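In the current project phase, work has continued on tokenised descriptions of protein folds. One protein thus recorded appears below exactly as we store it.

——
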Amino acid sequence: MNRANWKAIAAASLMVSLLASPLQSVAAAAEPAANSAKLANNAAVPTANAQELADGTYSLGYTFLKYNTAQVSVMQDYVIPTGRLIVQNGQKLVQITLKQSKEITQFKLEQGGQLVSPEVVATDEKANTRTIQFAVDDLSAKVKGWVKIYWQVSPTFLYDHEYDIHLTFDSSSLKLLSSTEANAETDTESTDAGSFKDIEQHWAQSAIARAVSLGLVSGYVDGTFRPESSITRAEFAVLLSRAMKLGTSSAKETSFSDNARIPAWVKPYLGPVVEAGVINGFADGSFRADSTINRTELAVMVVRALKLEVDSAAKPAYADTDTIPKWAQAEVAAAASAGIMNVHAGNKFAPLVNATRAEAVSAILALAEAQS
């Protein structure tokens, strides 16, 4: 189903929901009722030994319910219904992807007795999605949530509501993706770039195809590559290690202060990249594996990896050069001279914009070719 049809169906569904119940003020609006509300398939969530899972990344089904009911919430239409469960040293982190990200202006889940906004670990502006991550102690327990949606569906129809919800997990759906490398890139059985349905006519299509052929990257289980999605520090560390042919380390621990939060699939690659001086931690000693990298950081790390000559007095010739952090201007100039970074509209570098998967692959390809 194409995006236009989906939006039309979603809008129609919302209209039915609104017409089926009295309109309420936005400040205290409860979730609209539906005439034919369906029951959740997993209202009673089985434990399925979910509390004794081995370290790794799993696919996990989940359902949003109307608050304190067994009825599926309208919120279920705003998410990709299969998420991820990352288990590391007994800690469980759940990742779910929200559709209509711009329209979901606020989303909170109960953590430690308070409603808080979960960490955003990935965004895709083109697809209008964002992926959030939060800790879960018990997969058999409901998680209270709250959502605010502001959607101008059409010139004459504004959907402006906020309501309480419950989130439940289907432990019986758990499926191990990988115990060592179950990251966003190894989530597919196919490494055929021709099978990616979302890179046709993309500016980085040839670079993505080449990177796939070299075994540097792969796609997602749904047959997409998601070239415009942001890339995390963890994902880029693995990509760097592969491109530089650094191999892996058998070390299970790192010296970073947040070692417990670094996924197991990253650690074998992280040590060699850090030792090579290409990627470092933050001032507080943390690595922040789930943080995204911006275009400045991407340029600096690739320049270091390529060991390009850097003129400390050089400044790149972009329309927004003054917005590039001074500490990185020489490296960005070197990257520009080497032609390893694309330019945004208006001859802008956009230094603080999140680097995309396509940009990372395109930049890293020069490194891979240099190592071959």
Q: What stands out?
A: The CA atoms of residues 44 and 140 lie 8 Å apart.
